[in-house]
Amino acid sequence: MGMSGFEQATGRKPRTVIIGAGMSGILMGYRLLKAGLDHFTIYEKGESCGGTWRESTYPGLHCDVKSHHYCYSFALNPTWSKEFPAQPEIYAYFNRQAEEFGVLDKIRFRTEVGEARWDGAKWQIALKDGSSDWADILVSATGFLHMINYPEMPGLETFKGAKFHTARWDHSVSLEDKRIGVIGTGSTAVQITSALAGKVKHFSLFQRTPQWVLHVPNEPYSEDQRQEFAKNPGLMMDIYRETEDAAHYLTMGIMFEDSPYRADLVQNALDNLAKIKDPDLRARMTPDYAFGCKRLIMSPDFYEAIQRPNTELVDDPIERVVPEGILTKSGRTIELDVLVLATGFNALAYIRPVEVFGEDGISLEEVWAKRPIAYETMTVPHMPNFFMIGGPYSPVGNISLVRVSELQSGWIMQCIEKIAAEGVAIAPRQDATDVMIEGFREQARKTIWYKGGCSSWYLDSEGVPGIYPYPSDKFKQDVSAGPRFGDFAIRPLPETEPA
Ligand code: NAP
Questions:
Q1: Alpha carbon nearest to ligand 1 atom 28, residue
Q2: 71, 40 contact by CB (below 8 A)
Q3: Rounded distance, CA 322 to CA 333, Å?
Q4: Residue with CA closest to ligand 1 atom 29
Q5: Is the CB of 208 under 6 A from ligand 1?
Q6: Residue of the nearest CA to atom 3 in ligand 1?
Q7: Which of 26, 65, 294, 403 could form an S-S bond across to 70 if both were Cys, CB 3.0 to 4.6 Å?
Q8: Pocket test for ligand 1, best of 144, 146, 183 (most atoms within 8 A of CB)
Q9: Does the beta carbon of 207 lie inside 6 Å of ligand 1?
């Protein structure tokens, strides 16, 4: 085989650095190995793979996307114990796959990337431990759920019991004999409520905003079924495809008022709400905004859980945290031994706090001065040979992020193959990116997320959703079609002395 354009320019094969060894970083590593581009390192700040599945270990944590779809399509797993198994199984799956793919040897754990700077030919990378590295190609695989959102709440530091965010669960604290308070009513708080309410001395759920909750049962797989899956992987692929189709209808029903798929979903949520027997409690837990406006919650038993003994919903707003618990606006003190912050993440922080400087020293913060932008969710103007899995306007919400990452990493590989074959630096053109983002924002204003009368982490500083605003099958089609290189600025790499 002759020398590629990249080898002619540089005298070697391209080197890639991936930031993050979560689900998407492992996947990117797998794809590079498959393509024979094995000169790469994955930097991971934690001690193992799995990203958010390593950091979050709270009681009741499971994925609300079916596991036969929340996995790599080329590494289906016959051993899932349930349709929606708990965190330890998912965490183990990703770590096992990293090893099986041969990616594990490529990961440098406990190493955080501080800065990446394009020097005109490659990325110079500064690591927080004081060392440095370089790369021809930089891939951000940092995920959505690692920048913790600590609430600004007066008196929080004065609480004298145990206090932690759900992504920093302190397993040394016993729970059964304790009065537990959980702040928040997102997916996390709902799962914790199902796991703990009625099983501890007292459980208080502090609700600022009621949620729409779909009833979704979680059936175990029998040993026979698991053996069947192992013998006949086609059965797993059937579930994978069915779940993907269902996710498409689900997102349509959530996003658009006039969707034919909406009525059944709304009815499910209303029937679910009707399980609350006390009319006063039911009224307090009924949202005053449109169904689907916030990320939909799915649970087999949340409303049963909140009605268990020694369990209370507190919707009296929090005035402040005091040493013995929480003081509400109406002047009541709720005494607590453990305070759990289920207050979520700064989901749209993307690669931050890593600092990135592109062409002519322009910073990512400057390119993103108005709002985070990306061409086709994965590339950023003025940032040559830089790619993001799960970048701005990626589909998030009630769909499988593993599937999204598979589509995105496939598209990114096509870019990387072009870089390797031709010896070029590529970045999307600003004008092409602006047109795309304008289209996204115009479409985003047509969704329930924008019109539904709620606040949510989907919204940017102007109240417009910063996530993919079309049905998920459009994303699949567009990304599967591959990069349109006409929308890119493509420059030959400067010829350098062989390294
Ligand atoms: P979240 O959805 O962002 O919810 C945070 C909750 O904390 C909200 O109820 C919010 O109230 C409340 N909150 C925040 N600051 C507060 C304050 N100062 N005072 C009172 N309440 C406050 O967070 P999450 O539940 O941790 O979920 C984060 C993301 O993780 C989800 O969106 C989801 O993508 C993912 N997740 C997924 C699964 C899964 O099964 N796939 C499970 C758990 C989490 P408001 O609503 O009033 O803002």
A1: 344
A2: no
A3: 8
A4: 344
A5: yes
A6: 344
A7: 65
A8: 183
A9: no
Cα 357 → chain centroid: 24
- Top CATH class of 5-147+346-492 equals alpha beta
**From CA 418, how far away is CA 424, in angstroms rounded?**
8
CA 187 – ligand 1 centroid, Å: 6
Query: Three-state SS for 4?
Result: coil
Question: Which residues lie across from 341 on neighbouring strands?
Answer: 165, 183
Relative to the CA of 344, which ligand 1 atom is closest?
23
404 lines ligand 1 (CB under 6 A): no
CA–centroid distance, residue 183 to ligand 1 (Å): 9
3-state secondary structure of 410: helix
Cα(400)–Cα(402) distance, integer angstroms: 5
Fold: same for 5-147+346-492 and 156-341: yes
63, 149, 188, best to mutate for ligand 1 pocket (most atoms within 8 Å of CB): 188
CA distance 380 to 437: 11
Q: How many whole angstroms from 457 Cα to the centroid of ligand 1? A: 8
Where does residue 489 rank: exposed (0-12), middle (13-18), buried (19+ CB within 10 A)? middle
Q: What residue has token string 């692929």? A: 237
Q: Output the CA 319–ligand 1 centroid distance in Å.
A: 20
Instruction: Please report, in tens digits, the pLDDT of each residue of the chain (499 residues total).
Output: 567 889 888 888 999 999 999 999 999 999 999 999 999 999 999 999 999 999 999 999 999 999 999 999 999 999 999 999 999 999 999 999 999 999 999 999 999 999 999 999 999 999 999 999 999 999 999 998 889 999 999 999 999 999 999 999 999 999 999 999 999 999 999 999 999 999 999 999 999 999 999 999 999 999 999 999 999 999 999 999 999 999 999 999 999 999 999 999 999 999 999 999 999 999 999 999 999 999 999 999 999 999 999 999 999 999 999 999 999 999 999 999 999 999 999 988 999 999 999 999 999 999 999 999 999 999 999 999 999 999 999 998 778 999 999 999 999 999 999 999 999 999 999 999 999 999 999 999 999 999 999 999 999 989 999 999 998 889 999 999 999 999 999 999 987 755 5
What's the gap in Å between 186 CA and the centre of ligand 1? 4
Residue with CA closest to ligand 1 atom 8: 184
For ligand 1, atom 12: residue with the closest CA:
184
Q: Letter for the amino acid at 402? A: V
Which residue in the block uniquely carries the two structure tokens 């020694």? Answer: 310
**Residue spans per domain, the chain:** 5-147+346-492, 156-341
CA distance 486 to 499: 32
- CB distance 189 to ligand 1 below 6 Å: yes
CA-to-CA distance for 393 and 377, rounded, in angstroms? Answer: 5
Candidate CATH numbers 3.30.930.10, 3.30.110.70, 3.20.20.70, 3.50.50.60; the one for domain 156-341: 3.50.50.60
